[in-house]
């Protein structure tokens, strides 16, 4: 009888200790900062697919009003997105590769254009998106996420949370499924540096934000001078064509556009197949658990 009493007492004490610890610090719960940031992602959804989305959301706390709404065409937005490259190191070689895949370009060029056109001065446009990018051996799914807005000077800002971050369904060490409620994919914030390991390459009209107080550059925060970037993109397109007959140039542009559309469609199909393969794998595991 005494043994039962002792055991029950130990159980009660253990439960009390667990409750106390969970109230103080639960290592499996979200950090307060992550909780606050995730809560701030709610707003009108322009596009959504599983964990991916493009949404109009409230600004970071303490931010100055944006120059919104700002009408920008889908074509101009695509030119800007196509102008953004990242510095990628594979083995001993560093090269610049496009920041966004064809599928990402197709989705973001339309949704960011619409979002900036309807957002108010106290709103940003956030996105989390997955794309297929060439890795060292094969194509990999990588995540890009950012907070997008036009500042008072008319410059387009991308505050990145993730840049070409390899996307995993399972932890590479434990093999356990990653709970995205605990480890959400988040865009960046004006109030803290995301500490991205991959950075956007600076170019004409593309630079890092410089803190006016400390003078420090933030490599997760990219500032884009829209007219400069669009003019540079146009010059480079014209430079590729040289003195070719204007009609032939028009045919080349049209063919490139059609090829680009086909490439976008193929990329979207590949990404859908990737998503389906993840779902099939989850169903297979569920069937295996039911058999046990």
Structure description:
The chain is an alpha+beta fold and 292 residues long. The chain has one domain. It is built from six helices and nine strands. The longest helix has 46 residues. The two termini are 38 Å apart. Keywords: Signal.
> How large, in whole angstroms, is the Cα Rg?
24 Å
Quickly give the structural class: alpha+beta
Question: Count of helices?
Answer: 6
Q: Order of strands in the sheet with the most strands?
A: 1-2-5-6-7-9-8
Give the amount of beta strand, in percent.
Answer: 15-25%
- Quaternary state reads single chain
Distance N to C terminus: 38 Å
Total of domains: 1
Number of strands: 9
Overall outline: globular
Organism: Methylophaga lonarensis MPL
Keywords: Signal
Signal peptide: 1-18
Protein name: Lipoprotein
Core attributes:
globular; 6 helices; 292 residues; 9 strands; alpha+beta; seven-stranded antiparallel beta sheet
How are the secondary structure elements laid out?
Elements: H1 2-24, H2 32-39, E1 45-49, E2 52-58, H3 74-82, E3 85-90, E4 93-98, H4 102-118, E5 123-134, E6 139-150, E7 156-166, E8 206-210, E9 217-224, H5 226-241, H6 246-291
Antiparallel strand pairs: 1-2, 2-5, 3-4, 5-6, 6-7, 7-9, 8-9
Helix pairs in contact: 3-4, 4-6
